[in-house]
Amino acid sequence: DFAARVEQTDAELEAFTQAFAQEIERGGGSYVIPVVFHIVHNNGPENISDAQIHDAMRILNQDFNRENADWDNVRPEFLDIVADIGIEFRLAAKDPSGNCTNGITRTVSSLTNEGASQMKSLISWPRNKYVQVWVAASADGAAGYTFRPGSAQWMPEEDGIVMQHLYTGSIGTSTVNRSRALTHEVGHWLNLAHTWGNSNDPGVSENCSDDDGVSDTPNTIGWTSCTLGGSSCGSALDNVENYMEYSYCSKMFT
Q1: If we measure between CA atoms, which residue out of 247, 227, 244, 78 comes closest to residue 177?
Q2: Fewer CB in a 10 Å sphere around the end CB: N or C, the chain?
Q3: Radius of gyration (Cα) for the chain, nearest Å?
Q4: Three-state DSSP class for residue 227
């Protein structure tokens, strides 16, 4: 069935990810990924400015390349494993037909208030050439969401990230405190789990028996608050400031 196929694909992709991570040379922004922002709006505040999109791109690149101003404010126990992932994100310069673009599209639709599959079907660019970010009034009830690769390959037209405009960048309709949500979702798009594992339910004791597949991230139940002294699964300290947490004080990847 579909769930079994996704589980098998997830396992295969995780094995590939682990092998690939051993081979590549990280750091320095050497791997470039084109990005397109699809702004789906109904002429409301969700029709965010180009400047807000550029701000979101700035934050995304800083976070993935350890250029964010707050990375060295993490708990000292984790300072030596703050990672420079070495991925650069650039707004697309050409659309799927080869025409020049600024990497931003705008579509008027009331589906912006749903932010689900039907909205994504309004406009979709090839998944093998771009990471797509749909920005809307709603992200299907979340701040943002995406399919990880194991699921996305079965729904190629829906591969990408949906972001509520209130969590896109740090200016305009968003704020600094909400500006790391896109970094979190791009992490998922690149096959990262939450720090507590594959569920969307932090704070559950059973999470201690799960893992995120990243060897230098301590097992954790997962946090919804910035509890910097948190220690939940036998480790000396949880990595509460990880971008793949729900703590809203994220500053680092491992």
Answers
A1: 247
A2: N
A3: 18
A4: coil
Among 187, 218, 247, 249, smallest CA distance to 78 is for 218
**Torsion angle of the four alpha carbons 153, 141, 252, 72, in this order, in degrees rounded to the nearest 10:** 160
Q: What is the pLDDT of residue 107?
A: 98
What's the farthest any 2 CA atoms get from each other in the chain? 55
The pLDDT-based confidence of 5 (bands split at 50, 70, 90) is low
Q: Is the pTM of this model over 0.70?
A: yes
* Rounded Cα distance, 92 and 100, in Å: 9
| Tokens describing residue 101 | 């673009």
12 is catalytic: no
Helices (H), 40-141: 50-64, 117-120
Catalytic member of 185, 206, 241, 245: 185
pLDDT in tens, 57-69: 999 999 999 999 9
